[in-house]
Amino acid sequence: PFRIELAMKNLTAVWSNFQMAGAKRLVLADVIETRDHLEHYRKAIPGVDILVVRLHATLPTLTKHVQQREIGSALTRHLQRATELTAIMERNHVEDVLVDIERKTVTTIAREILTRSNWLPVSDV
User: What letter does residue 125 receive in the DSSP assignment?
Assistant: First the structure.
């Protein structure tokens, strides 16, 4: 339902292009419900190390974010999906790194992700 096959073909092409341009790392935003889902990525970009970072927020915070981002008829479905995904992620613990985003700025969250992923030395924080 989420066109995963097409997305993975596109990812393969995009990653190849970025590698030719000198990229060493790639950050993707996606919903990973189970560790098995990572197999799609391993096939699309073989040989890479995958680190799953989950951004954690309370359901009221997620609801607020969804309401700010979505409009129209899709809002109800996105709110329902946020509730579903919260339960799935709490149950499955797919993440390698969990980052709490409550009451943090985007800059603070980004620095924490980079530091905890060992992409940014602690002295640069």
Answer: -
